[in-house]
Give the backbone structure.
Amino acid sequence: MSGSHRLEFGDCAGKYCAASGAVSRDHVRLNDIFERAREGDSLALAIIERASKALALSISHMVMLFNPAMIILGGDLLQGEDLLAPRIQRELAAQLPDFTETTELTVTGLGLDIGLKGAAFLAFQNAVNNPS
């Protein structure tokens, strides 16, 4: 990525924590930044904006390469879906004007522990297919 689009979330979060005094630099929780942004904290909102632009840039590259009908956001992003999804959608529409006509951006309904559910499914499937 070019320097203007590079996202170093740890560095942003560290600066946020130092400026706000909310938590120590070593114990930043993503949810803390989302909560502060919801309260209108300008630095937290700047972090969210920067992260949204970086995510949109990455997603736009995947759209150009794979032309998916749908992109599903999940994982820790779900904690801030109300903050991130609209910003990512806006950035994607600006970068790829035809994006909203050809690709749907949505958030998973499977919850935060989707990775655990996927691992459990794979373990179950493996046990059924290879019982020995």
In short: The helical segments are 9-20, 30-38, 42-66, 81-95, 99-102, 114-129.
